[in-house]
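Lab notebook: predicted structure, single chain.

Context: the supervisor wants predicted structures on file for every construct in the current expression panel, including those that have not yet been purified. This is the next one on the list. No modifications to the sequence; it matches the entry in the shared construct table.
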Amino acid sequence: METSAGFWLLAVLLLVGFTQAQTVEKYFRVGETLQLSPQPVSERIYSVVWKYGKYLLAEWVKDQIPLTYYSKFKGRTTVNTGTGVLEIRNMTAADNEVYTVEINNHVQSRAVRIREVPQPEVTVRPPMCGSSLENCTLSCDGDVKEAEPVEYFWKIGDGEWEQSGKIMEIINSEETQCVKMFSCRMKNPVSERRSESITNPSLDRSTASCGNTIKTCWLSGRKA
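Prediction complete. Output recorded below exactly as produced.
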């Protein structure tokens, strides 16, 4: 997986009220502090329980259970028993999970993780695409249902990565017939992966010379 040491993570805070729900997206970097704030309650708070996935992260019950932190969150976590606000310092990629809080024994809000992007694969359409066709399309495919928002990038031959849409249309020309390889890359706030390079389906191997530099490949990207 291609990623930097300081890549972004995403927490989605879903505040659940009696009549409507409001979703708030929060991005944070590895090493920074994450703060999740439950919706304020009208009554005095007498118990707060935070969970990490299905495991206890912290809990407090007035006059029964002192404020207690569990597992890897010990020493870097603070819960405000007056508001229920959770603060986790020195966040790591491994902390990217589903967080749930119970205020006064009621599930009041939850933070939902974003999944890593899948391994992308470049699909050629039509499958019999070749230099004899006027145009073909390349699709950067993968199941991104739970990995949104996803950005797409394409690499044309030896060129630089350029952001585009999921679908890349190849307009057949002398320039495009000289491009040997294509590859795509998917990226979201927590991860990025690139596909295997594929041979240009429009490559004209009979071309004697393609020149030293290809300035324009006459490609257009669009969303699926």
